[in-house]
Structures are given as C-alpha cells and as structure tokens.
Amino acid sequence: MKLFTDNDVTPHGAVAGAGSMYADRSELVQSPIPVVQKGDGYGAKLRTGLQINFNGKLHSLYATCYSNAASVWFKINGRTIFVN
Fold this sequence. Notes:
By secondary structure, this protein is mainly beta. It has one domain (6-33, 41-83). The chain has no helices and seven strands. Strands 1-2-7-6-5-4-3 form a seven-stranded mixed sheet, with no helix packed on it.
C-alpha cells in the first residue's frame, strides 16, 4: 500500500479547487462494504469498497456513474480528488 500525499495531486481543470492523481489498483486497500448497495449501479455517490492512504489516513473511494462512464474520487477537507 502506497502512501499518497499532496505532492501526488495535480490540478483538475473541470472542477474548481479539485485535484487529480493516478493510482494503481494494487496501491489501494480493499475494504468490505457492510451493507449491499441497492439500486441499478448509477448515481452521484456510489461506494466502491476501496480506500486510499492519503496523508497518513484512509479515505473511502466513491464513484459517480451515469451511462457507461464513471469517475472515482474522494473528498478531503472539502476538496475533491479524482483518482485515475
């Protein structure tokens, strides 16, 4: 598991104040989802069951998915960080 920091984040132009970073799946932590999510798999804040170690703390990753495209992200101090 890799420890990501603010140095790994680059500005993300689409959303004001947001950032973007790259992470391989092997660098993430698998965390079991306690309750099975209901619905059709589309929405603005879907739990992924993955966590990322950012600045020494584990943060849950969420996905926003509409149609056949999804964006994975987490929030820290009100700032959205997209994970590619």
